[in-house]
Amino acid sequence: MSRGSSVQDWTVRPERGSLLLIKLGVWVALRLGRRLARLFLYPICLYFLASSPTAIRSSRQYLKRVLKRRPRLIDVFRHFLTYASCVLDRVFLLNDQIAQYDVRVHGEEILRDIEQRGGGCMLFGAHIGSFEVTRAVGRRRRNLQVSLLMYEDNARKIRAALAAINPHLETEVIGLGRANSLIAVAERLDRGHFIGLLADRNVDGTDMVRCPFLGAPAAFPKGPFRVAMLLQRPIVMMVGLYRGRRTYEVFFEPLADATEPQSERGDAWIDSTMRRYVSRLEYYCRSAPFNWFNFYDFWHDINVLFWLCIGLAVGSAVANADPSHATPAWDLPQLMRELAQVTSASGQFTEHKTSQMLSAPLVTSGTLSYVAPDRVQKTILTPVEELFDLNRNQVTIMGGPDRQIHHFSLDDDPRIIGLVQAIRATLAGDLPTLNRFYEVQCTGNVTNWQLRLKPRDASLAGLVAWIRIEGSEDRISSIETESGNGDHSEMSVNEDVINVR
User: Fold this and answer.
1) 248-306 confidence digits (pLDDT tens)
2) 3-class DSSP assignment, residue 323
3) pTM of the model
């Protein structure tokens, strides 16, 4: 595992559609019935296929990993349709109409055993398949009390509409982010409740651990596992997979037993439990590949590689800091000629990142190194040690308590290729290639100059809004970048070694 610092972006995206339209959709579905209501799903999915580039890109990213081939447009449509089907079925399941479905349950005896022992447990799910069908299975057992721990604010309109179907739903939800959330969870567990939550996301993207998932490291929150450890309750994994038509398969399997104090080996216990959770999640994704409903950059491939490429940009700026090459005629062609002379460079950096999801800047520091023409390493030393290595088109990430190593390729996203090639063109002093990807401005003079890069392509602009490098003579004063989602970075560098031809 390696710890991830990327901030989740799903919480800042508003749910599409107004509360009035959602309520209207619920009303229509209940009156038309499932068979007729499903007819509306096809034009709705076609609409999203034409108007949701972010969801399409995220779907392709996931499907390429899970299908082990390049996904076709029909695959993305099927992915959307599976999600829409589960959303529609949620309406009927919340209305206690589970009898119209063929629900096949595996591992229900696990819940029965915990229930007979009189203790509550944590039910860990994910944004895969239908959470509601697993809850509906629990509702069939009259003595089984299930409470939900969920992030309410981002989906409050949908939740309000669905809560109107079943007035008891409101009392079964424990809201995340409240001061008394943990106390409420403990109280309900003491009363024998089963607490269900989706453990593949968190609200602010902090306290995340990167685990191998479908061939690349992805960030998962430690919080749910820490809560289970503190409350000393068993964890059961639950998954409700949609198999088409009216068929669902529900799986319950023991994930970990936290009934004994874990203080002496807390981190190791969390680490091993998260490994098993992610491993089983990958198994279910491969079993039902179109049931994955995280329509955002779950792996943060783009974010990780974006900051790697910023390291490349910084490396090029550091490499230029050689007094013997400074010249009063400081314009863009001269800057490119100076960069083309560099064979290697290294330095120390301090970086301040700000995000609308963070209450304070995230400060990291470490070292950078560059070897021409296409090798860069960024080593973060504080607050957590982590190594990012970019060698041609291959990325290596190493970190975490056991210093695990993960590899993946730049070829997973063509925008990344464009970004990297643009930065490499800067390093090589290749102005024509740089101009093909960016609008390039070089202003000022030898004592106060600025290089600004702005993407020409709209898809690349969704990744990086601009890069700005400022300096005086041969010294860099600041490196500023802004990503497509508004996250901002300022990096300062102290050069150590510069080698030129």
Assistant:
1) 999 999 998 866 655 556 778 888 899 999 999 999 999 999 999 998 878 765 555 55
2) helix
3) 0.66
Residue 242's DSSP bridge partners are: 248
Contacts of 119 (CB under 8 A, 6+ apart): 189, 192, 233, 234, 259
Those residues with Cβ within 8 angstroms of residue 95's Cβ, 6 or more apart along the chain or in another chain:
30, 165, 166
- Report residue 81 CA to chain centroid gap: 22
- Treating both helix axes as pointing N-terminal to C-terminal, what angle do 73-94 and 19-32 enclose, rounded to 10 degrees? 80
Phi-psi domain of 331 (left: phi exceeds 0; alpha: psi -120 through 50; beta: other): beta
Rounded to an integer, what distance in angstroms lies between the CA atom of residue 199 and that of residue 196?
Answer: 9
Up-side HSE of residue 338: CA atoms within 13 Å toward CB?
23
Q: Using an 8 Å Cβ cutoff, are 427 and 316 in contact?
A: yes
Round the CA-based radius of gyration of the chain to a whole number and report it: 26
DSSP secondary structure string for all residues of 93-104 = HHTT-GGGSEEE
First to last CA, the chain: 40
